[in-house]
Amino acid sequence: MPGTIINPTRMELTRLKRQLRTAQRGHKLLRDKRDELMKQFMETVRENRALRQRVEQGLSKAHASFTVAAALMTPEMLGQSLLIPSRSVELDLSFENIMSVEVPRYHFTEHQGGSAYPYGYVQTSGELDDAVASLSGVFRDMLRLAEIEKTTQLLAEEIEKTRRRVNALEYVKIPQMQENIRYITMKLDENERANTIRLMKVKDMILKEAILEQRAADAEVLRESGQPS
User: Fold this and answer.
1) In sequence order, what are the residues at sequence separation of 6 or more whose Cβ sits closer than 8 angstroms to the Cβ of residue 37?
2) pLDDT digits (tens, 9 = 90+) for 114-136
3) Are 12 and 6 in contact (CB under 8 A)?
4) Residues β-bridged to residue 109
5) Where are the beta strands (DSSP E) in 4-67?
6) Partner residues linked to 93 by β-bridges
7) CB 134 within 8 A of CB 61
8) pTM for this prediction
């Protein structure tokens, strides 16, 4: 018997069966969504790993070049060389829907004027050129890495929420509905059997009364005809 109070009627049974069909369809859809999210998540993780490795290599190269340039140049000259940028960037943010998850998409536009290096070549070292070039080359990958990591986080959160919903339907809601349906079906069968037994008893009583009435009528006919009963 279910833990909650259930009204064992045919209307309630019909309602529960309809809810059970809806829950089973919802469970299948959520399970398919969870599987697709896992597929998207694994693809994103693989891209994230490759991007992170490339970004770390680029930043390590740029850091090494900056270290050498800082050793060869005075701090004042290094600061003045990088004080005024020779290019500007424009970053737009939009969102893409992946299985009902809104993930960010960065659109990067670079506006460059003149040389890629914001300084002259007389009092600067070649290592500074290498550092600036390395940072410039890794910048787009850094933006893409930020986009991918945020996407990974959002997908992981959605996978966890979907997994909880699937488990709630699979292990709580659907079994509870099935148990309630079995309970109502059992009660209706019991009521049906009880009604059948009552009808049979009433039929037997009516039949007995009819037999007794028929016997009494036959006896009355015999008395009126003068024949002993």
Assistant:
1) 99, 101, 155, 158, 159, 162
2) 555 665 555 666 777 777 777 77
3) yes
4) 90
5) none
6) 106
7) yes
8) 0.70
